[in-house]
Amino acid sequence: MKRYGEHRFPGKLFVVEGIDGSGKSTQLLLLHQWLKAEGFGVVFSEWNSSPLVRDITKRGKKKQMLSPATFSLIHSTDFADRTERNIIPLLKAGAVVLCDRYIYTAFARDVARGMDPKWVRELYSFAVKPTAAFYFRVPLETAIQRLLDGRSGFKYYEAGMDLGLSVDTEESFRLFQGRIIEEYEKMVPEFELTAVDATQPIEVEQAQMRQIVRSKLAQAKRLRVAP
Amino acid sequence: MRETYGTVLPGMNLADLTGKLIVIEGTDGVGRSTQIDLLKPWLEQEGRAVLDTGLTRSDLAGRGIKQAKEGHTLGPLTLSLFYATDFTDRLEQEIVPALRAGFVVLTDRYIYSLMARALIRGIDAAWLQNAYSFALKPDAVFYLRIGVDDLIPRVVFSRGFDYWESGMDLHPSEDMYESFRKYQTALLAQFDLLAEKYVFDVIDASGSPQGVFGQLRDRIGRVLSGEPREPLFSLVTAPPVPLAASDGDGRKEAAPVRAFEVPEKTPAKVPEKHPARERTGKGAAHAAAKTSGGAESV
Question: Which partner from B18, B94, B182, B265 sits 20 to 30 angstroms from B278, CA to CA?
Fold first, then answer.
């Protein structure tokens, strides 16, 4: 059983992290387009790749059956499945793998729910260490404004309603996401996350990201066939 | 106050868990559910409220695990975490509330079976210990112990060989019988190691169900009346047999598989056990393996 930092693969793994509304998914999409155009074999690894685990997670959330511990464990089950069946084989094959959220999301969320930080880190110790992990740092209010513009409301677990922080969904979301930001900030030095100021214009952030990714891709495989 | 193996889950209050947590452990086909079916009515006649529970019975993940096993598609780590999810759901939703209400909780297997299965599939012992560190320490763990030669006829003449009970996901052999034998031998070796580490009460399960029941009833009676727990004898542990090794005498040159911080001295006790015992399958041999030192956990 290889542990975090012990894997050696020809492929490269880039992940984006940050709270909802930080703009990380937009940035990853732009990075994806660029890498394809550059001729790299690039693959998105989706969350919930296993239909079976996905169904359990969905049902657990819908029926509000999840405690902090089972929330943590069912997500780690799904992540283990992605790692064993998707991420590791792709990295072995030399792909550039992109992940929208990674283990740091679990660390932030689970610890914000009261799980022991050391316990969660050890639980995910089988994860492959990313080539680079970008953390999109954004003030809570900016993120909330972006989210309120874009959609109708917050989901139960996303707002941390299971913690009983507030009966008001928006207020609960604010308190819960505030805790998550605290956890992310602790992880920046701990896991050497690359912090990106996510209040900048999109194209500026993307240029910073590409510069870092380019420097890590010196020996990565390019596809012979143009996309 | 009840203890855990290290960490405590958020919201789990360990005070006032006045019930008793009794674990029945042992390998596939050893007769655990038969014993629980006998113990439950007996306890109820004694005036004790009983909750019986077991693996993959959680509302959250039980069905999912069964489906996953039919498809045989999950990797060892994924399956391990799936089981941990199921265990945790039952711990929080069933076991703890029952203990708080003063029930006797009889559980058909506990974290130890999950650990044994994962260990022979290459999962790290330290990782497993962390994953299950919030599990409650039971009041007693009764390990129904059997040799593989006694186990085989029971399984063959009752339900036949099962894919998972034969460890077929590990491809030990093309032949179901050989697979079952190798897999269960490796599993039993892991159980024996866990029995030392976690100080199980060992019960020789090669005898009649009524005989086993008699022993369980006596020992559980002592647990319920609050007598201090003392393991009756220490188990003399066989050197663990890696799955790749052939059965029988192949065991001699077999290197021990990795397991829970096995003390180096363990293999030195081996001479008391000899291949003939496995073949004749006389259960009394287990009990004969008494040591004067008593069972000390590490």
Answer: B265
Reported as a single tens digit per residue, the pLDDT across B175-230 is: 888 888 999 999 999 999 999 999 999 999 999 999 999 999 999 999 999 876 55
Report the CATH superfamily, name and number, of domain B20-288.
P-loop containing nucleotide triphosphate hydrolases (3.40.50.300)
Question: pLDDT, tens digit, for every residue of A26-58?
Answer: 999 999 999 999 999 999 886 656 777 888 888
Distance CA B164, CA B83 (A): 14
Q: What SS3 class is residue B106?
A: strand
- Spatial distance between the Cα atoms of B80 and B83, rounded to a whole number of angstroms: 5
Angle between helices A169-190 and A140-150 (to 10 degrees): 130
User: Among B42, B127, B238, which Cα is nearest to A127's?
Assistant: B127
**Is A115 close to B68, i.e. CB distance below 8 A?**
no
Which pair of tokens denotes residue B270? 């081996």
Q: What is the CATH number for A182? A: 3.40.50.300
Predicted confidence (pLDDT) per residue in A119-162, tens digit: 999 999 999 999 999 999 999 999 888 888 877 778 898 889 99
A7 lies in some domain: no
Q: At what angle do helices A202-216 and A24-37 cross, to 10 degrees?
A: 50
Residue A132 maps to a domain = yes
User: Between the CA of residue B187 and those of B58, B162, B193, B258, what are the distances in Å?
Assistant: 24, 15, 10, 12
Domain holding A102, by residue range, is 12-216
CA–CA separation, A28 vs A202, rounded Å?
Answer: 11
- Please check whether residue A189 lies inside any domain of the structure: yes
Candidates A56, A115, A126; nearest CB to B61: A56
- Interface A-B, measured as beta-carbon pairs within 8 A, has a size of 93
- Does A221 reside within a domain? no
Q: Residues B143, B23: contact at Cβ < 8 Å? A: no
Encoded tokens for B159: 């339900």
Using an 8 Å CB-CB cutoff, list chain A residues near B72.
none
Amino acid at B249: D
Give the separation between CA A148 and CA A181, rounded to whole angstroms: 18
Domain count, chain A: 1
Domain regions of chain B by residue span: 20-288
CB-CB under 8 Å, B10 with A69: yes
As a whole number of angstroms, the distance between CA A207 and CA B251 comes to: 61
Total Cβ atoms within 10 A of residue B249: 10
Cα separation of B14 and B96, whole Å? 9
B82 in reach of chain A (CB within 8 A) = yes
A84 touches chain B (CB under 8 A): yes
Please report, rounded to a whole number, the percentage of residues in chain A having pLDDT higher than 70.
Answer: 93
Helices (H), B136-231: 148-156, 176-197, 209-224
